[in-house]
Write a structure and sequence with these properties.
single chain; 533 residues; alpha/beta; six-stranded mixed beta sheet; 20 helices
């Protein structure tokens, strides 16, 4: 038994995974290979690895929620000492929520689009507690407020599509915590959140873990996120655990070679070769933009108000701010997905279908589940009658997918068979096939692991330098924004509160909210081999 597991041997064991293997029945290949892990009451254990390594599949194995074409073919899973491998669906239903709950990576796969968030929370509460309608309503508002949703009494009547991606993730967290589970499987719970809300969410999870003695299996692709909260870190690669130890030991300079590779991807950055935009030649002008959403009769939510900025030809403009600050609304108004209630948007580029492309934050809802990957990637070329540089559509699709970090073996697959990060890479490849003049990217790298993020940052820089395209880059990861963008705008409560050259903003922020954002950036400390334990 390892040193770290010895520390927990007097604690109750909540979850034990012993030599579990999971097989893709269609391909007859293993996704998870002889995986073993133990989690004890009241601890936070982080599971870190690249997109597609099997982290989410492992969680679904624990809850027996595997897709029909995937099966557990070896090993055993124990929840509070009971082997659940042979449990029936009714037996598992009693465990889900009350004993083990899961916070899924994609909130829209959990939320029902035709039900208000309040109704969905109420449904989760009633499944585990017998309360009056008034008590349920009160509990709904308490849960929403607990995860940082303001104006809960009003917002509980809203539908999922009326929330930003980060706010939807908080709502899903509230649902998963409704029955106060003993173990929370948190699958990338902070991926769509800005740094300030991310910090609040991490603090919230730590507080709940302390108050309720709840154990958390925290899945992430970012070591920076888990470094400050997890007692132990397990590192996963291609379906196997390659390292599992204390956080300090994992982040040490003598860690496993693969862990060192992950650390290097975080700390080395990318070779910055930014091309400066033309100050006297704007591609896009946004003037006094305002957008409101109807909540109920005579009640409106102002999403953005009086937003003004220009996007120069050949520049990458970053747009940052907390979840719900209006970043995605600005992007959707520019693309005419939303019709603005006030202001003016002028685009000075070509009037072709291919001149503007949008990378959506939620890759699951933006990809057609009935289309194969190659069909999805080539669709914009066919719709705009674009002549592919490599002679045919299939060759272009393969080239763009390879650039985005996916090999040709993904061409014939469907979106449902891909991980969240893999789906996002398909969405990026689709947008880049027509080499647009303007690319609007709404959190394009949020669900990707650090090594893939680095590759795609280099791709975006290459495209900017080679083709001189312009990009509105919406993100909550300030480190990525600093490496990529020429200028940065900061959104707060629907307004653009600061806009400056990137290094000026990071070195000398003016607005109090900008200072708060920069102060919330997670840091990663790598321990030297000779430091004391």
């Amino acid at each position: 038994m390892k040193q770290e597991e010895k520390k927990h041997r007097n604690k109750k064991e909540i979850l034990r995974i012993e030599q579990v293997s999971v097989r893709d029945k269609k391909k007859d290949e293993l996704i998870i290979k002889s995986f073993s892990l133990r989690i004890y009451e009241g601890e936070i254990l982080a599971l870190v690895g690249e997109s597609g390594c099997g982290k989410s599949i492992l969680c679904k194995s624990v809850l027996k929620l595997l897709p029909s074409d995937v099966e557990q073919c070896a090993g055993a899973i124990y929840i509070e000492g009971q082997d659940v491998s042979a449990y029936t669906e009714s037996q598992m239903r009693r465990l889900r929520g009350s004993c083990v709950a899961m916070l899924f990576q994609d909130p829209m796969s959990t939320l029902h689009p035709a039900m208000t968030v309040g109704a969905q929370l109420a449904e989760a509460i009633r499944q585990h507690e017998k309360l009056s309608k008034k008590q349920v309503d009160k509990r709904v508002e308490e849960l929403l407020e607990m995860v940082g949703i303001e104006d809960a009494a009003i917002r509980k009547h809203m539908y999922p599509h009326q929330f930003s991606g980060g706010m939807r993730q908080r709502i899903v967290l509230a649902i998963s915590l409704a029955a106060r589970p003993k173990l929370l499987l948190a699958d990338e719970p902070t991926t769509a959140l800005d740094v300030t809300i991310q910090a609040q969410m991490l603090q919230l999870l730590q507080r709940l873990q302390r108050e309720y003695g709840m154990a958390i299996l925290f899945i992430s692709h970012d070591l920076r996120v888990v470094a400050g909260m997890a007692e132990r870190i397990a590192v996963m690669r291609q379906g196997e655990v390659v390292a599992c130890d204390s956080t300090k030991e994992i982040l040490s300079s003598h860690a496993h070679p693969y862990v060192q590779k992950l650390l290097q991807a975080l700390t080395s950055g990318v070779a910055s070769n930014k091309k400066t935009g033309d100050e006297n030649n704007n591609l896009l002008s946004v003037q006094h933009l305002t957008k409101r959403f109807l909540l109920e009769r005579n009640k409106y939510l102002t999403a953005i108000e009086d937003v003004t900025f220009e996007l120069r030809r050949g520049e990458i403009l970053g747009l940052v701010g907390e979840s719900g600050s209006g970043k995605s609304t600005v992007a959707r108004c520019i693309m005419n997905i939303y019709h603005a209630d006030g202001g003016e948007i002028r685009y000075f580029g070509k009037a072709s279908k291919a001149s503007k492309q949008f990378i959506f934050q939620d890759s699951s809802s933006s990809l057609n589940e009935r289309m194969k990957v190659w069909e999805i990637v080539t669709e914009p070329m066919k719709l705009s009658h674009y002549n592919p540089p490599r002679g045919n559509y299939l060759a272009e699709a393969e080239f763009q997918l390879t650039y985005a970090g996916l090999g040709p073996e993904y061409m014939e697959r469907y979106p449902r068979t891909l991980s969240g990060g893999q789906r996002q890479r398909v969405a990026i490849a689709r947008a880049l096939t027509v080499e647009p003049e303007l690319l609007i990217a709404d959190e394009p790298l949020a669900s990707l692991d650090t090594m893939t993020q680095k590759k795609l940052l280099e791709l975006f820089m290459h495209l900017q330098n080679e083709h001189g395209y312009s990009m509105l880059f919406i993100a909550h990861d300030l480190a990525l924004v600093r490496m990529l963008c020429n200028r940065v705008g900061v959104m707060h409560q629907g307004r653009l509160v600061e806009l400056a050259e990137t290094e000026t903003l990071f070195s000398n922020p003016q607005h109090p909210y900008t200072k708060q954002l920069l102060a919330s950036m997670p840091e990663l400390r790598v321990f030297e081999a000779d430091e004391e334990n």
